[in-house]
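re: ur question from earlier - yeah i can do the single chain one, its not a big deal. heres the input i used so u can compare w yours
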Amino acid sequence: MYEFVTGPLAWIAFLIFFIGVIVRAVLYIKGLAWNLDRVAYRDFPAAGAKGAIRSIVAWLIPFGTYGWRQNAAFTVMVFVFHIGLLVTPVFLLAHNLLLKERWGFSLPTLPEPVTDIMTILMLLAALLILLRRFALPEVRILTTGYDLLVLAIAVAPFVTGLLAYHHVGNYDFWLITHILSGEVFLIAIPFTKLSHFVLFFMSRAQLGMDFGIKRGGMKGRGMVW
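and the output i got, formated as tokens:
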């Protein structure tokens, strides 16, 4: 079973992930239209690029935007959650040993105690985000079963990986479950809200171009609106 889930099934999961993400990105770009969005994307590339970079960078910095500063506690939760979600699997020693064994390459790794703490903090942040969804009426009214399912798919590899790492119960069971849940996570990314893994950067770039071009002193310079 281990050979199958770390071999053919892993290849399938990664192929679906990469192809799906590329398709989502292409469809997003193809869906842009200057006359619909009222942004001359191609006519002012310098102003657009500057605005896009400024927007992305600002939102990647904790408290770097007005929106982040409005709710400090939520901002901390979001950044702890996403840093753990993205950084831990990439630089985890066990994952890179598997990469080296299966595909002949590996990435730099973080000390295991560090990734262990990052995983625990990420799961605590996820729990707080979940509780927030039920505690705040303005968030609860927008929460559906789909949102809870997406969150469960995101955290499942970390819960099972933590249980396997600390040998809680049956190690082989949790190891296989961890690998399978990780592959479900990869496959789900292109088809769910988890696609913001890529679309966040594209949407922030689009909004940044809007501000950089339309609201950045370019209005009236040959534009039709």
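Residues 166 and 185 are 22 Å apart (CA to CA). not sure if urs matches, ping me
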